[in-house]
Each structure stands twice: as structure tokens, then as C-alpha cells.
Amino acid sequence: MKKQRIISAPFFFLRAGTAGAALVTGLLQTYVFAHVLSPHRFSIFILVAAIGYSLWLIDFGIVKILFVRLRACFLAGKPDKTVAGHATAIVTFYFGLVTTGALACFIFMAIQTNATLREAAEFGLFFWFISLNLVWFALRNITIAFDDYVLFEALETVRRAGYFVGLGAALFGLPLIVMFIALNALWAVVLTICLKRMFARGALLPSVSGFTAHLRSFVRANRKELVRSGTYAATEIYTYNYPYLIVPLLFGLGAPPIILDTTFKVFRGGSTIFSAVTDIVIPRQTSALAERDGPTLVHATLFGVAMCALPAALISIILLFGAERLFAMLLGHAATMPPATTPILIAMLFADLTKMITHSVLVHNGYFKEVARVGLGVVLAMTGLAAFALLTHLDIVHFLAAYTAVYACGAVAALVMMIRGPVRRAYEGAPVPASPPLAKPSAP
After folding, report:
1. pLDDT higher than threshold 90 for residue 51
2. How many CA atoms lie within 13 A of 220 on its CB side?
């Protein structure tokens, strides 16, 4: 049997490019909004984005279950129209959800606030632009399941380049509403191309007929895993988004939410890079576990660790020697980043590196029960931290430091789960069937 490569070279370069672009465009968005908006309006855009991202809570880990099912079909060489119907129904549901959310955002801003109709439209279009990432997230996992990741990353490159150009134009005077219309039109183009490719591969069905029946069928077939993966997904959304509620409660709008958002821009930008690396090694990791090839699973995972460590070290060096100038340039007079956030950010990055690597191995091989347990523990600790912060009026620096400590503990727990779960299983016995039952991912 021909030995598979750990990674696809085209996928590696494209994914690395889009991950780097995500970090750059995230920082550029902060720079542009800080220089073209008032601090008050900037902070409202931050809240709109946080609500848009919170729609990911609706996913409840559904996309990861789809990945495991679709990947099993692909590795077995047996396309399944039932699973494709499930995937089609879920992508359709997500698109309807984000569109409804964008419309609701526009109506709320137009009726319940003092925003003009144009400003309300800007908020609604920005919400749509942000929340369409939920649909894109589903399609990314579907394309990886069918080893069609190169096309996806090429489309992502086009989308990121368009966003970069749009932000640059806004900085030089392009009205925000024009930029948001153009960016959502670009969304329509890349989504259409990706969907057509998935129709041709049999990963999705070209018709949405039977939409409700397919959703019901998916729930019935995956009820136990939905509870586990849903618990995991809910803990993830909570962990990443609750600071956006706590900080305004503690300090109000203005500079503190901007400091938090800028910190999280770097933190989540690192996550995007680490996620890119984990995406690159997922195909080999999943096939290695199916083949019970322990050394290859470990080799692929360590390769991912090494590839994540390089950008983490680079970002850390930039922060150590240039954080003050970097943040001053990004934020202008909107806010001043406290110097103490630099070591906190570095600790965040390496904790996140550990978490992203371990969670990727667990989730993409169906270990939803394990990640749900870790997630629940982190949520309980984060909730305790929130209560403590409100009662003692922690300042923004101490809150971020405590948040990082809790996050790091969760990452270490996930590392232990990975070693005890998929790594140990990969070294045991003969190859598992190509389509293992999801209900028993952690059976010895």
C-alpha cells in the first residue's frame, strides 16, 4: 500500500496564507474602525460582531458530527445520499439562520435605537458578513471530509483578499455601507462556487426538497452524539464570548471593550493560524486512526505542534519588542493597551496552541464525550471567575490574567484526554472499520 504523505503541499501553502490573512485582516479591521469611527460606535460594532459570532452556539457541534460521518463514507469509498441530505439540510438551515439574524439586527437598530436607517443597514450588513462564517465553517469541514480542501482554500484566499481591499478602501474614504455590500456580494460568489463543487462530489444534494425530513432524520440518527457535541460547542461559545458581556458590565462602553477586543483579536488570530495547521493534518490523522497506525498519528500530531510553534514564537517576539508601538498604531486615540497585556497574550497563545491541537484530534475522531467533559469544567471555572470579577471589581488586566490561567488548565486537561483516548486507541489491535459507530468513540 502506498504510504500517504502527512500533508498536501498546495493545501499547506494556501491554508497558511489564509490563516495569516485572517490575523492581518482582523488587526486591519481594528485599525480601520478605530480611525474612521468614534469609540462609542466602534464598541457597538464590536458587540454586533460578538452577537453574530454567538450564532455558532446553534451549531451544537453538528458540523463535526457531519465531518465524522462524511469522512467515514469517503474513506470507505461509498457515498451516502442520506448523509449528503443531512449535510444539505444543515447548510440550508444555517444560511436561513444568519440571514434572519441580519434582518433582525437591522430592524432592531432602526426601531429601538437612535441609529439612522443607513446606520442600521450598516449594522445589519456587518452582522450578515460576520455570521456567514457559520455557513463557511460547515462547508470547510465538508470539503476537508472529501479531500477537496485545496479548492476551498483558494476561495478563502479570494475572500480574504477582497476583505483586505475593502478595509483599505474604507480607510481612504469608501462609505462603510458600500464596503459591506461589496463584501457580502463576494460572499455570494465564493459560496456559489463551493456549493457547485460539493454537489458534483456528492457531498451535498443539489435540491433542498425534504429539508425538514432530513433534519429530523439527522437528529434521530445522532441523538446521543448531538448531546455530547452540543455540550462541547456550547462551552466553546461561552468561553470565547462571555468576556464581551462581563467587561462592559464592569467598565461600560468605550476603551475597556476595545482593549478586550484587541487582545482577543491577537488571541483568536493565533487560533486561526493554529486551526489552519490542524486542518492540514486532519486527513492523515483520521486515516491513521482508522488504520490503527499509532506512529503515524503521533507523527502527524507532533508535526502540527511544530508548525504551530513557529508562528506562536514569531507573534511572541513581535509582542515582546513592539507591542506598544503596534497597539498605539492600531488604536490611535481610541484606547491605550496596558503593557501588562503583553505577557498575558503570549501565555494565551501557547495555551491555545495546546488546546487547538488536542481538541482537533479528539473532535475529528468522534471523541465528543471527552471534550464535553473538559468544556464543562472550563465553563464552571469561567463562571466562577466572572462572579469573582463582578464582586471584587477586578481591573481589565487582572481579569485577562485570570481568564488565561483557567483557559490553560483546560488545555492541559484536553492533552491528557487526547493521550488516553485516540493516541492509545491508535496503538491497539487491527484496523477499525471505515465507518465506526459514533456512539462509542472512546471504547477501549
Report:
1. no
2. 7
Cell of 250: 464592569
Mean pLDDT calculated for residue range 262-289: 79
pLDDT one-digit tens code per residue, 324-364? 787 777 766 666 677 888 888 899 899 999 999 998 888 87
pLDDT in tens, 92-144: 999 999 999 999 989 998 887 777 888 899 999 999 999 998 999 899 889 88
CA–CA–CA angle 277, 281, 287 (5° rounding): 160
